[in-house]
Amino acid sequence: xxxxxxxxxxxxxxxxxxxxxxxxxxxxxxxxxxxxxxxxxxxxxxxxxxxxxxxxxxxxxxxxxxxxxxxxxxxxxxxxxxxxxxxxxxxxxxxxxxxxxxxxxxxxxxxxxxxxxxxxxxxxxxxxxxxxxxxxxxxxxxxxxxxxxxxxxxxxxxxxxxxxxxxxxxxxxxxxxxxxxxxxxxxxxxxxxxxxxxxxxxxxxxxxxxxxxxxxxxxxxxxxxxxxxxxxxxxxxxxxxxxxxxxxxxxxxxxxxxxxxxxxxxxxxxxxxxxxxxxxxxxxxxxxxxxxxxxxxxxxxxxxxxxxxxxxxxxxxxxxxxxxxxxxxxxxxxxxxxxxxxxxxxxxxxxxxxxxxxxxxxxxxxxxxxxxxxxxxxxxxxx
Length: 383
Ligand code: NDP
Ligand code: PMR
Hints:
Elements: H1 2-13, H2 29-38, E1 59-60, E2 66-67, E3 71-76, H3 81-92, E4 96-102, H4 105-114, E5 122-126, H5 132-145, E6 151-154, H6 175-197, E7 204-208, H7 232-235, H8 254-280, E8 283-287, H9 303-317, H10 323-335, E9 344-348, E10 354-357, H11 366-379
Parallel strand pairs: 3-4, 3-6, 4-5, 6-7, 7-8, 8-9
Antiparallel strand pairs: 1-2, 9-10
Helix pairs in contact: 3-10, 5-6, 6-8, 8-11
This protein binds NADPH dihydro-nicotinamide-adenine-dinucleotide phosphate (NDP) and Protochlorophyllide (PMR).
NADPH dihydro-nicotinamide-adenine-dinucleotide phosphate (NDP) binds next to α3.
């Protein structure tokens, strides 16, 4: 039974088209595992992607050789986990100035220092994605810095798996979708202008996605599953004032809200691609960096989960990746000249080689993406 399970999770890690059903409770992690060993009922959702590349523009150095100026990249949520590891990997190249867009200025400064990032390679700017005013203020502050914007990485996220009641952003949206999707949606929409204006050879907008939002994988089939339904809750404002705090209009569920927000992230990337890639040449991408089971994302989870999750991912699913390795992967999506294809959801195999992955049917539904775009525009005051 165990070998069946191990081989099934391995196949799933490669994200072959599949799904499963499982009963789980956050308090009995080992019973998840047993249940999972017994339940495997698979289904599929596959989609092909289109290829495009951006042209190169280089400036001349005094000796006549072509050189590239230092790139400027904004990374949201760079004060810990994946964001910090990515900021560090980019800063260490000496070719990138990392703007760490963080809600806690002091925490970010301390994190950069303890990661050994050299002062000349980063700066911290305040951004609280739980407030649309803060997002707008961040955009103004960034523009005042006079720096061109070459790459934007929407990385920050919150996850409330054990919350019984929803919490809300300053604008009254359920917190997980408010921060992970709506705050980033406004930020990315505003900063697209800046990316367009940059003369950097490859300008990129990257929105971090996840396997758990993709129901064509085993991980995406652990209940509660992501499902945006007909978006009626989002249309109602996600504020709990008479309507629902969940995108699909259902009862509040913190774990589902997070997974829904990741579906929004992946749909948004593709809608950006459809609307703006050809016109702007900007590369739009999303990714699943691997299971970084040690990050602060799980800070709200029960203690038993935090204890067992890293070894479970390391030894059973083999989906575990260190913060350092995950940071290198995301940094690769920022800088690698071979990853300029737009509209792609990147993943990595066990040898850390990147490949274009397939999204679930829902996470690649163009009509849903368009409706999500329109409703999100209304909620953040762009329409
Ligand atoms: P962390 O909790 O370590 O990092 C999340 C970051 O987001 C922190 O820097 C946090 O700031 C910041 N953040 C939270 N709320 C806000 C806000 N309101 N405004 C600005 N910043 C905010 O988690 P991870 O590094 O794991 O997560 C990073 C990304 O990776 C997320 O998009 C997540 O969905 C994705 N991901 C993670 C996986 C994993 O296994 N960990 C797997 C797949 C995807 P602060 O430091 O102040 O708390
Ligand atoms: Mg999952 C190949 C199998 C695989 C992978 C790659 C992940 C990734 N997980 C896998 C399998 C399983 N998980 C199985 C079989 C179980 C039942 C025992 C399981 C359970 C589980 C829980 C309870 N897993 C979780 C949770 C969480 O609370 C995490 C979550 O959903 O956060 C939203 C999580 C995750 N598993 C992953 C990844 C990457 C996560 C977390 C982060 C994320 O998607 O951002």
